[in-house]
Specification:
281 residues; alpha/beta; 8-stranded mixed beta sheet
Length: 281
């Protein structure tokens, strides 16, 4: 199916890059499939306190002390953090999460990074300030932008994350074999469709220098978000960013890996960087 879609868009884009970009934008902004709660996640999912915050389904566990925000990625949902949530509860934290619009149990349509900022701000007002924020994949730029704009969090853990906002368009076009003309038109469609034509979004929403201690975790076999994005994140964030590389886990299994969870939670707990972390950028 992907090959057929790519071939069709390439053919259209060769005749009309504008139309190709418009059609690519329509596909780019649709998850196409919603993540379902897995059997292994069901006990944790069902134990949450579920609320509706401006039409978004939110979840909270624990007694409210030491809240930690969890932000999921594209085509995912909050329940993917079940193993993290279990460990955080054992240590006295209170995990907080949400299903993004158009994902999980939240109705659509999907929203931009600014929509996620509003959701995260609302969760901070209800549950925060946060002891920490853990984000995965596309949730990484959403979380980091929210913190940059004032959401309070002591420590940050970013897993398999996108650092360069333009990577979202570039990787989409690369996957479908779309050329630079369609890529350019797709970027214009994104600017117009979500940001009132703002051409500065590609820098504005990319990772910038941050003050809160940050742990970057990425896998060398990630076939969804290029591991090079970890290097970009580390360089752009600055001296407060630390790196924990992993191997053989891919893009999704990394969230269930006990060693990854242990490193991430240790980073949230400790005022010092955990032993064994690679601090090189």
């Amino acid at each position: 199916m992907q090959k057929l879609i790519g071939a069709g868009l390439r053919a259209i884009g060769a005749v009309s890059p504008r139309l190709g970009g418009r059609l690519a934008f329509g596909l780019w902004r649709r998850p196409l499939a919603r993540g379902q709660v897995r059997d292994s996640e069901r006990p944790v999912h069902d134990a949450a306190r579920v609320e509706d915050v401006d039409g978004v389904v939110t979840y909270a566990w624990g007694d409210g002390a030491r809240p930690v925000l969890l932000v999921h990625g594209w085509r995912s949902r909050a329940s993917r953090y079940a193993a993290f949530i279990t460990r955080l509860l054992e240590l006295g934290y209170s995990p907080v999460a949400y299903d993004a619009p158009g994902h999980g149990d939240s109705p659509g349509p999907i929203v931009s990074i600014l929509g996620h900022q509003r959701i995260i701000r609302a969760l901070e007002e209800r549950h925060g300030p946060f002891e920490g924020v853990i984000a995965h994949s596309l949730g990484v730029p959403f979380a980091l932008y929210s913190v940059k704009e004032g959401v309070a969090a002591k420590r940050l853990v970013m897993v398999s994350g996108v650092a360069d906002f333009g990577y979202l368009a570039d990787s989409f076009c690369r996957t479908l074999g779309l050329g630079p003309k369609v890529n350019k038109r797709l970027r214009r469609e994104i600017e117009q469709g979500y940001f009132d034509g703002d051409h500065t979004i590609w820098n504005r929403f990319s990772v910038a220098t941050g003050k809160a201690p940050l742990l970057v975790i990425h896998n060398d076999e990630d076939d969804v978000v290029d591991p090079e994005q970890a290097r970009v994140l580390l360089l752009n964030y600055g001296t407060q960013a630390h790196f924990h590389p992993t191997s053989g886990l891919g893009h999704s299994r990394i969230l269930q890996d006990p060693a990854v969870i242990a490193e991430a939670v240790a980073f949230l707990q400790d005022s010092d960087v955990p032993e064994g972390l690679d601090l090189s950028a």
